[in-house]
């Protein structure tokens, strides 16, 4: 585990994931993504030296993965709060577009992975952990 629910709430100030048990699931998936992004360079030394940036990156990725999952589950649900127009005669309802960055990447795994990578870069740039060279 790279980070904890306590760090998520009190240092990262995350508020999307409400339960500790839910956080453990998303943190684990975020750690997998970080290991992939860093070419598995998350050694004990790296975890110690870049503790705070890695924890923040894990929290940000966990948040993102959680939001993507939540948006995927509700993508087909009708959002009654986003009614653009309503007719009564033939019962016609038009909904507005509530596109967000998260909903925009739902159908494209490559774009999701790029968004996850960009999120990690915000916290890990300058650490050398993203260097994939020899």
Describe this protein's structure.
The chain is 55% helix and 7% strand. With 134 residues, it is mainly alpha-helical. It has a two-stranded antiparallel sheet. A hairpin with a 4-residue loop joins strand 1 (83-87) and strand 2. The chain is globular. The mean pLDDT is 86.
Please mark out the parts with pLDDT under 50 across 5 or more consecutive residues, or reply none: none
Helical content (DSSP H or I, runs of 4+) = 55-70%
Distance between the ends: 27 Å
Instruction: Work out the radius of gyration.
Output: 18 Å
* Principal-axes shape call: globular
Quick tags:
single chain; 134 residues; mainly alpha; two-stranded antiparallel ribbon; 2 strands; 55% helix; globular
Quick recap:
Helices cover 55% and strands 7% of the residues. The chain is mainly α.
Layout of secondary structure:
Layout: H1 5-10, H2 20-37, H3 44-49, H4 51-74, E1 83-87, E2 92-95, H5 101-104, H6 109-124
Helix pairs in contact: 2-4, 4-6
């Amino acid at each position: 585990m790279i980070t904890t629910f306590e760090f998520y709430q009190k240092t990262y100030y995350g508020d999307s994931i409400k339960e500790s048990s839910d956080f453990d699931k998303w943190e684990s998936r975020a750690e997998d993504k970080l290991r992939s992004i860093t070419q598995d360079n998350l050694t004990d030394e790296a975890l110690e030296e870049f503790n705070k940036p890695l924890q923040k990156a894990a929290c940000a990725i966990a948040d993102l993965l959680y939001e993507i999952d939540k948006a995927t589950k509700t993508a087909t649900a009708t959002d009654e709060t986003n009614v653009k127009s309503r007719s009564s005669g033939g019962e016609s309802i038009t909904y507005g577009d509530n596109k967000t960055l998260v909903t925009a990447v739902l159908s494209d795994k490559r774009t999701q992975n790029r968004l996850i990578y960009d999120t990690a870069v915000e916290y890990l740039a300058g650490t050398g952990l993203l260097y994939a060279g020899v």
